[in-house]
Specification:
Layout (H helix, E strand, L loop, with lengths): L3 H7 L1 E8 L5 H11 L20 H6 L6 E7 L2 E7 L7 H10 L2 E7 L6 H12 L4 E6 L8 H12 L3 E3 L1 E4 L7 E4 L4 E5 L8 E4 L6 H15 L4 H8 L6 H13 L4 E5 L8 H11 L9 E4 L6 E4 L8 E10 L3 E10 L1 E3 L3 E4 L5 E3 L3 E5 L2 E5 L1 E3 L3 E5 L9 E3 L6 E2 L9 E7 L5 H14 L4 E4 L6 E5 L2 H15 L3 E3 L3 E2 L2 E3 L4 E11 L2 E13 L12 E4 L11 H11 L13 E9 L7 H18 L3 E14 L3 H10 L3 E7 L4 E9 L6 H9 L4 E11 L2 H11 L5
Parallel strand pairs: 1-3, 1-4, 4-5, 5-11, 6-11, 33-34
Antiparallel strand pairs: 2-3, 7-8, 8-9, 9-10, 12-13, 12-24, 14-15, 14-23, 15-22, 16-21, 17-18, 17-23, 19-20, 19-22, 25-27, 25-28, 25-29, 26-27, 30-35, 31-32, 32-34, 35-37, 35-38, 36-37
Helix pairs in contact: 13-14
């Protein structure tokens, strides 16, 4: 028998809603909030009043930028929804949302099907092994094709997607859905915005289609339940609860994707989606325990979803609110923390008290007395928490694995329009940098300019816009600049002996390194460079090893060609010497920096440029011109495939430096009918002529 705590946990659903731009993701979220009684009036994206799109820029642009967290209730279940962005410039929001979810709903357009960004986000979810359902939206639109979209999910996402309901009618004639579990037809009353639903018998002309679809569903889920399989093979009647149990089991095991259909804008099918979330999405009890590590020994630590265990949570998002200040969103994995109690930040050792905790209703807030295992909420006013920090009550020492975010690939210079705004700009940029791990601020050491860096032109446009709207700071910005990096192409030995009297005291350190290029495939996950210690404590005592490694890696932050970060370098400490009287940490840091700094200049350094994954959907008439343009931009076509009867999909690797202003360019090439997405893929060594041009430009003597 389940305890009260287990019952409570079993009724929680932490889900994300993810999709390509314009698949109807935010509209679907609005309908969910309306039907669960959270909203009394539905918001529409095209009217600019969608509830989860609460930033002014989101309301204007009709895209979701920051992942809004909303809690609502349906049939005794608490559903925490994170509405994630559908634009690749905001990939950090998607990544950190996926990290804390238990399940996700992929929203697909019944006309567009599996589009580039939905494919990207789906594969991000694959990495975290998140159970998913698919909701095929916009069944009322001209060209809607339920079966074709399911086939695309099979082929492009390699998912075992099987419908659990089917549409009654298509396009303008889309009237409702047939539930294949109950074999019931559902219609939704337009006069009550779909709140009143009517169950009826399946239309006679659809009965055979429904029977075939149900047979396919039962066959697909029989492998997840032995009892169901026996009944199915024997041709017996299968109870509905048994069908739901098998669907749930396959979904939670990440081996089955239930597919539903509807039209969120027309208020059809969303209640059945809510039922499916409760029936098939995992609760915190269904997901595997989270694995962390002991900070000292690095041995694994298992964290189970138990409200009575020691408190363990992760900070997954920081946001500055103009009314309450800094908000830190947390996902609680175990234990319970009450308002007024203290927590320990396992990343930096700081202890803080929670003065206030909130349940976030997008940009509305409800005060809470506690947060317990399985829940998502926000702390107010924490001074030291940042994204990715592990939080405990001090009873358990554990580090949950950090979140990893891609490096920024584009920069612009920024300055306040008036001197009076200098301090305000500095403070605003600091706050925005706290919020967004992919947004960086730094000072160019040669020009003294302030540079801001991000994941794309839209990302930085939004930042500049927020400065004005939220912080009342008007800024002048320069042209976009590519964030180049450096690497080396030659292996060599680097050694240095540091002997010097400083402040009347002797200093001695001797180090010897082997420095060599290393391919990305040979690097540990998410690491940019590799340090290997191959010496014994007799050569250099262990107390200096950490200082040597830190100095070595810090030297790689400033390359010899353009002061860019250096990557794909292996540094191996192979020899050294110390003096028991004069050796110290500072001496080893200095000798290490000198040795590696000189070696990098001699190791044939080269410049690397960011390569973007460009995906274009274009009508057939314009494909030739678009391909020619990609080739002219040093692009490499990777994939060309048919997307629909009149559209082709082109996937290419293209240097970022060739893509500034591409929105205008492709509009011109396709008469405004092609769409595209850009996503960072990798860094690659630039051709010699490009390196020469970059050096000229950066060193200030461009033609």
């Amino acid at each position: 028998m389940k305890s009260e705590a287990e019952t409570t946990l079993s009724l929680i659903r932490n889900i994300g809603i993810m999709a390509h731009i314009d698949a109807g993701k935010t509209t679907t979220t609005e309908r969910i909030l309306f039907y669960t009684g959270f909203l009394h009036k539905m918001g529409e994206v095209h009217d600019g009043n969608a509830f989860t799109d609460w930033m002014e820029q989101e309301r204007e642009r009709g895209i979701t930028i920051t992942a809004a967290t909303v809690s609502c209730f349906w049939k005794e279940h608490k559903i925490n929804i994170i509405d994630t962005p559908g634009h690749v410039d905001f990939t950090a929001e998607v990544e950190r949302s996926l990290r804390v979810l238990d399940g996700a709903i992929g929203v697909f357009c019944a006309v567009g099907g599996v589009e580039p960004q939905s494919e990207t986000v789906w594969h991000q979810a694959d990495r975290y092994q998140i159970p998913r359902m698919a909701y095929i939206n916009k069944m009322d639109r001209t060209g809607a094709d339920y079966d074709r979209v399911i086939q695309m999910i099979h082929e492009r996402l390699t998912a075992k997607a099987v419908p659990i309901n089917i549409p009654i009618g298509r396009e303008d004639h889309f009237e409702g859905v047939i539930d294949l579990i109950t074999m019931t037809a559902w219609h939704f009353d337009p006069l009550t915005y779909g709140q009143e639903t009517k169950a009826s018998e399946i239309p006679h002309n659809m009965l055979e289609e429904a029977k075939e679809a149900r047979e396919h569903l039962l066959e697909s889920i029989s492998e997840f339940d032995d009892e169901l399989m026996m009944l199915f093979l024997e041709g017996e009647n299968i109870p509905q609860d048994l069908i739901r149990r098998a669907i749930r089991r396959g979904t939670v095991q990440n081996e089955f994707v239930p597919v539903l259909c509807g039209s969120s804008l027309r208020n059809r099918g969303v209640q059945l989606l809510l039922d499916a979330i409760c029936d098939y999405m995992p609760s915190p009890l269904d997901i595997p325990p989270v694995e962390g590590s002991d900070p000292e020994s690095k041995t694994p630590v298992i964290v189970r979803s138990d409200p009575n265990a020691p408190f363990v949570a992760m900070a997954f998002k920081v946001q500055v609110d103009k009314y309450v200040g800094k908000l830190v969103y947390v996902r609680v994995y175990s234990g319970t923390l009450k308002k007024g109690e203290s927590f320990v930040n396992q990343t930096n050792g700081k202890r803080e008290r929670v003065s206030r905790m909130l349940s976030m209703m997008s940009n509305r807030k409800v005060d809470l007395d506690n947060l317990h295992a399985g829940d998502i909420g926000a702390f107010v006013g924490s001074r030291f928490l940042i994204t990715g920090d592990t939080i405990t009550d001090g009873k358990l020492e554990v580090h949950l694995s950090k979140m990893h975010f891609p490096d920024s690939v584009i920069s612009i210079a920024i300055e306040p329009k008036t001197k009076a705004d200098q301090e305000s700009l500095k403070e605003a940029l600091t706050r925005l940098e706290e919020e967004d791990p992919t947004f960086k601020v730094h000072i160019d050491k040669d020009s003294g300019q302030t540079l801001i860096s991000g994941m794309g032109e839209l990302h930085l446009d939004i930042i500049v816009d927020r400065l004005k709207r939220e912080f009342n700071v008007s800024a002048n910005v320069g042209n976009p600049q590519v964030s180049y990096k450096e690497t080396i192409t030659k292996e060599l030995i680097a050694e240095e002996t540091f002997v010097r009297d400083m402040n009347g005291k002797g200093n001695f350190a001797q180090v010897k390194f082997r420095i060599s290029p290393i391919s990305p495939q040979d690097l540990p996950d998410e690491e940019k460079n590799l340090f290997v210690n191959s010496i014994s404590p007799e050569k250099i005592p262990q107390e200096y090893w950490k200082a040597i490694e830190e100095a070595a890696m810090n030297t790689l932050n400033d390359g010899p060609l353009i002061s860019g970060a250096i990557e794909r370098v292996k540094i191996e400490l192979i020899d050294g010497a110390f003096n028991p009287v004069d050796s110290n940490e500072l001496a080893f840091r200095i000798s290490t920096s000198m040795a590696i700094g000189k070696a990098l200049r001699m190791a044939d350094p080269v410049i690397m440029e960011p390569i973007m994954l460009l995906t274009v959907l274009s009508p057939d008439d314009f494909v030739g011109d678009i391909i020619s343009d990609i080739n002219a931009k040093r692009g490499k076509i990777e994939v060309m495939r048919r997307h629909s009867e009149i559209q082709q999909e082109i996937i290419a690797d293209v240097p970022l430096s060739e893509l500034f202003g591409y929105a205008t360019r492709i509009r011109s090439l396709s008469q405004g009918r092609a769409i595209y997405t850009l996503e960072f893929k990798k860094y690659e060594i630039s051709p010699a002529n490009v390196q020469t041009a970059v050096l000229k430009k950066i060193r200030g003597y461009a033609d």
